[in-house]
Amino acid sequence: MDAITDKTMLETAEEVPARPSREEAEEAVRTLIRWAGDDPRREGLLDTPGRVVKAYQEWFAGYEKDAADELGRVFEDVQGYDDMVMLTDIDVESHCEHHMAPIIGTACVAYLPDRAVVGISKIAKVVEIFSKRLQTQETMTAQIADAIEEAMKPRGVAVFVDAKHQCMTTRGVHHPNVSTITTTFTGEFKANPELRERFMRLTEKSRR
Ligand SMILES: Nc1nc2c(ncn2[C@@H]2O[C@H](COP(=O)(O)OP(=O)(O)OP(=O)(O)O)[C@@H](O)[C@H]2O)c(=O)[nH]1
Ligand SMILES: [Zn+2]
């Protein structure tokens, strides 16, 4: 195989397949209903494919959004405030990429500003953008930290996610009480154990 053909094949392999039409997505739901053992022509199920597709638009709305856009506007007039800014109890409603089952929990996010701060709602939006995708909790946690790091270049970022995976609580191993905790630390949070400890103590507020 020559180099050009090889490259063309690679590019083709990396292309994201074309997005299906709404009708194709609804047909896929009918197939799953039949797979579950029911009849999609049954009256109670007639509108279900349309509802499921609409629900998917909400659950996976994060693919349509860019975290950098949310973090683009900063405020510098904060009287030299340079201590930690932290949001606790941010709702996380995600879906695991292995089973497409809900992941439900909360996130705590902190950063150490270097001159500028962002609107606090934007931090919650960044969590939402990455959670409303097919995810592993580890990837989501790292992506939230990376986006803040990239856009704001703060002195450090800390992200803590505490969530229940329904693929584990309602099926499979069936451990209904298990929570998964993931953390990502960058900059001063990574370098300074006392700062990390302070952040972790403040996350306890969200686990009461
Ligand atoms: N690391 C990680 N694992 C996850 C996450 N969400 C789900 N999983 C795990 O992904 C794994 C998938 O394992 P597989 O053996 O391929 O699938 P499975 O046969 O359905 O596994 P079980 O869930 O154990 O029944 C399971 O262990 C899940 O608990 C996540 O966010 N992070
Ligand atoms: Zn899963």
Characterise this structure.
With 208 residues, this protein is an alpha+beta fold. The chain folds into two domains: 22-61, GTP cyclohydrolase I, N-terminal domain (GTP Cyclohydrolase I, Chain A, domain 1); 67-207, GTP Cyclohydrolase I, domain 2 (2-Layer Sandwich), CATH 3.30.1130. The chain has nine helices and seven strands. The chain has helices at 3-14, 22-36, 48-59, 67-70, 120-131, 137-152, 166-169, 187-191, 193-203, and strands at 74-75, 85-96, 102-112, 117-118, 134-135, 156-165, 180-185. The strands form two sheets. Strands 5-2-3-6-7 form a five-stranded mixed β-sheet, sandwiched between helices. A two-stranded antiparallel ribbon has the order 1-4. Helix 2 (22-36) packs across helix 3 (48-59) and helix 5 packs antiparallel against helix 6. The longest helix has 16 residues, at 137-152. Mean pLDDT is 93; it is low at 1-5. The structure holds guanosine-5'-triphosphate and zinc ion. Guanosine-5'-triphosphate binds at residues 96, 98, 136-138, 165, 167-168, 172-173.
- Outline the biggest β-sheet: 5 strands, mixed
Which structural class is indicated by helix and strand composition? alpha+beta
Strand order of the main beta sheet, please? Answer: 5-2-3-6-7
Query: Which ions and ligands are bound to the chains?
Result: guanosine-5'-triphosphate, zinc ion
As a whole number of angstroms, the C-alpha radius of gyration is 21 Å
CATH level-1 class of the largest domain: Alpha Beta
Uncertain segments are 1-5
Classified in CATH, the superfamily of the largest domain is GTP cyclohydrolase I, C-terminal domain/NADPH-dependent 7-cyano-7-deazaguanine reductase, N-terminal domain
Helix content: 40-55%
Tally of contiguous helical segments: 9
Overall pLDDT score: 93
CATH architecture of the largest domain, by name, is 2-Layer Sandwich
Number of strands: 7
Task: Calculate the terminal CA-CA distance, rounded to whole Å.
Answer: 61 Å
Helix and strand run: HHHHEEEEHEHEHEHH
Portion in strands: 15-25%
Instruction: Could you tell me the CATH topology label of the largest domain.
Output: GTP Cyclohydrolase I, domain 2
Domain module tally: 2
Principal-axes shape call: elongated
